[in-house]
Amino acid sequence: MKCDRKDFVLYAVTDRSWLNGKTLTEQVREALEGGATFIQLREKNLDEETFLEEAKEIQKLCREYQVPFVINDNVKIAEEIGADGVHVGQKDMEAEDVRKRLGPDKIIGVSAQTVEQAKKAEQHGADYLGVGAVFPTGSKADATEVSHEVLKEICRAVRIPVIAIGGISRKNVMELKGSGICGVAVISAIFASRDIRTAAAELKKSVEEMIKE
C-alpha cells in the first residue's frame, strides 16, 4: 500500500496512557470516526503476544476505514501481520534495512530532526518523515525540539511528505502554517480527550485550514 499526501493530514499515534476504561481498539475506532487519516500503533511495554493480538485487531479496523496502518519500531510484528508499514526512529533499524525486509510496497516512515537525517532517510527509501518535536511535549521525555525554521528547511530539502510531531494541539497548529508540511502526528491531542471523535474532527478541520496554501 502506497499513500498519498492527503493520507497524512491527521496521523494518530496510539498511547494507552488515557484508556479511561475503554480498550485501545475502541479509542482508535473513535479517532477514525472523527476523521483520523493514518494510524500508528505505538507500544513500548506490551509483551509480544499481546502486542500481536492488538495489532491484528487495529489493523482490521483500519482496513474497514481504508486508512493506512503502521507499527512503531517493531518490524517483526509489522512483517508477521502484513501491516501497511512501519515507522522507525533514528536509533531503530535503518530505513534501507527495513525496506529490504518488508519489500517495495510497504510504507516506511522515519523520524528526523535535521536536514541531514531527512535527506539520508529519503535516499534510503523512506516514504515519509515525522519531524519534531515542534512544540514542547510530555509524550516523549527525550524529544528534541526542532525549530520551525529547521522544519521548513527539511520540507524544502526532500520530495517525500513531511509531518510535524510533538506537542501539537488545536491551539497551536496554525503556527505551522507555511512550513511545507502535509499534516500532523498527534497523541494526546486526540487520545487524552474525553471525546476522541470530536477532538479528531476539530483538529482535522484546523489542520486542513493550516495546510491550505
TrEMBL record:
Cofactor binding, note field: Binds 1 Mg(2+) ion per subunit.
Catalysis performed (reactions): 4-methyl-5-(2-phosphooxyethyl)-thiazole + 4-amino-2-methyl-5-(diphosphooxymethyl)pyrimidine + H(+) = thiamine phosphate + diphosphate; 2-[(2R,5Z)-2-carboxy-4-methylthiazol-5(2H)-ylidene]ethyl phosphate + 4-amino-2-methyl-5-(diphosphooxymethyl)pyrimidine + 2 H(+) = thiamine phosphate + CO2 + diphosphate; 2-(2-carboxy-4-methylthiazol-5-yl)ethyl phosphate + 4-amino-2-methyl-5-(diphosphooxymethyl)pyrimidine + 2 H(+) = thiamine phosphate + CO2 + diphosphate
Pathway: Cofactor biosynthesis; thiamine diphosphate biosynthesis; thiamine phosphate from 4-amino-2-methyl-5-diphosphomethylpyrimidine and 4-methyl-5-(2-phosphoethyl)-thiazole: step 1/1
Keywords, sorted A to Z: Magnesium, Metal-binding, Thiamine biosynthesis, Transferase
Entry's EC annotation: 2.5.1.3
Highest taxon in the source lineage: Bacteria
Residues involved in 2-[(2R,5Z)-2-carboxy-4-methylthiazol-5(2H)-ylidene]ethyl phosphate binding: 137-139, 167, 187-188
Positions of transmembrane segments: none
GO biological process: thiamine biosynthetic process; thiamine diphosphate biosynthetic process
The keyword Metal-binding is assigned to this record: yes
Pfam families found in the cross-reference section: TMP-TENI
Listed NCBIfam families: thiE
Function noted in UniProt: Condenses 4-methyl-5-(beta-hydroxyethyl)thiazole monophosphate (THZ-P) and 2-methyl-4-amino-5-hydroxymethyl pyrimidine pyrophosphate (HMP-PP) to form thiamine monophosphate (TMP).
Protein name, UniProt field: Thiamine-phosphate synthase
Source organism: Sellimonas catena
